[in-house]
Automatic annotation (TrEMBL):
Localisation: Cell membrane
Membrane topology annotation: Single-pass type I membrane protein
Main location: membrane
The protein, known as: Interleukin 17 receptor A
Residues annotated as signal peptide: 1-22
GO cellular component: plasma membrane
PANTHER family linked to this entry: INTERLEUKIN-17 RECEPTOR, INTERLEUKIN-17 RECEPTOR A
């Protein structure tokens, strides 16, 4: 393991460059985001999450959004797919719509407490309590880039904010982005950088008490694979474990690989195996996604 680790020094960080991972606002990526809609002229901008209305108390403030939904989505940026949140909300149908001047959108990444914001500035008041077609006024924003597998707190604040105590005019929800095993997420750039497109379909066959034939589909490039096998007599207890390094030298479309893994002094009863394969692809080095499979004991022959 140490030998392999030394072969990929900080490669991942070099490839990604600064700011390529994590929470980010994609406002300037083409096409520029436009928050205008029927009868509403709206401008969108970067925000410091500290709208002036905190300080200047407004006599009248609009009520909170009535509905807030968050979904996973992807954004096409120069041929790359980026994971983003699609935030959708609706404006409550009440007279407070007359005082709605804009919206602050805040996204907090829970594991590192980092928050970024975007702001909609309405250039005119909404002309009616409902949309001209009769529905509730609704909005969508899909320019917060996020990390697969991470949890976020999403808050939509109607502006001006309530400067005094009372019912805060925001709505909040927490949302966990699907991880790189998700069929949509696995095609995004941050997932592909962990080798998410590799589908090994691991299989195992017991040859005798102390050897296991492991087979899997290798990746497209020549790479090293660390095959870790653990044997068990049942669900809980563990018997032996062993690690085998396999190096595939060919690249391109390849046949399934068969590797015989020996497990020294394994007991006959320890016939259940857990196989974990860690690939070392160039793009992800030591941080590639690992895949595993469980091989049950062979059913007793009659
Ligand atoms: C946004 O779209 C409206 C039409 O819906 C258009 O009149 C306006 O120029 C657009 N604004 C920007 C900044 O592109
Ligand atoms: C938004 O703010 C961030 C940090 O303050 C800055 O790096 C970025 O360039 C700004 N983006 C736009 C579109 O103004
Ligand atoms: C508002 O909702 C309608 C119906 O669900 C949808 O088709 C439309 O795209 C939404 N508009 C915005 C700006 O989110
Ligand atoms: C691996 O084993 C399977 C059957 O178990 C066989 O069909 C295949 O040809 C073997 N592959 C190699 C590269 O030996």
């Amino acid at each position: 393991m140490g030998r392999v680790a030394a072969a990929f020094p900080r490669l991942l960080l070099l490839l990604l460059g600064p700011g390529a991972l994590g929470l980010r606002l994609l406002l300037s990526a083409p096409p520029p985001f436009n928050c205008s809609q029927l009868d509403l002229n709206c401008l969108v901008r970067n925000s410091t999450c500290m709208d002036q209305s905190w300080l200047q108390v407004s006599t009248w403030t609009p009520s909170a959004p009535s509905v807030l939904d968050v979904h996973p989505d992807v954004f096409h940026d120069e041929g790359k797919l980026l994971p983003v949140l699609r935030i959708e909300w609706k404006v409550a149908t009440d007279a407070s719509i007359q005082y709605l001047r804009g919206v602050e959108l805040a996204v907090l990444q829970v594991n590192n407490n980092r928050q970024i914001c975007a702001q909609f500035d309405f250039q005119n008041n909404l002309p009616l309590q409902v949309r001209p077609d009769g529905g509730r006024w609704n909005f969508t924003f899909n320019r917060f880039e996020v990390e697969p597998g991470q949890m976020y707190q999403v808050t939509v604040h109607h502006l001006p904010k309530l400067g005094t105590s009372g019912d805060h005019n925001c709505k909040s929800t927490s949302y966990t982005v699907p991880d790189c095993k998700d069929p949509v997420m696995k095609r995004t750039m941050p997932c592909m950088q962990t080798g998410s497109l590799w589908e090994p379909s691991i299989d195992g066959e017991s040859l005798d008490d102390s050897s296991l034939l492991v087979s899997f589909n290798p990746g497209m490039e020549s790479a090293q694979y660390r095959i870790h096998v653990t044997s068990f007599p049942d669900e809980e207890k563990q018997c032996k474990e062993t690690t085998h390094i396999y190096e595939s030298l060919q690249s391109g479309q390849q046949h399934r690989v068969n590797v015989t893994v020996k497990i020294e002094r394994n007991l006959k009863a320890c016939c259940r195996y857990k196989i974990q394969i860690q690939p070392f692809f160039t793009i992800c080095g030591n941080d590639c996604l690992r895949h595993s499979a469980v091989i049950p004991c062979p059913s007793v022959a009659p």
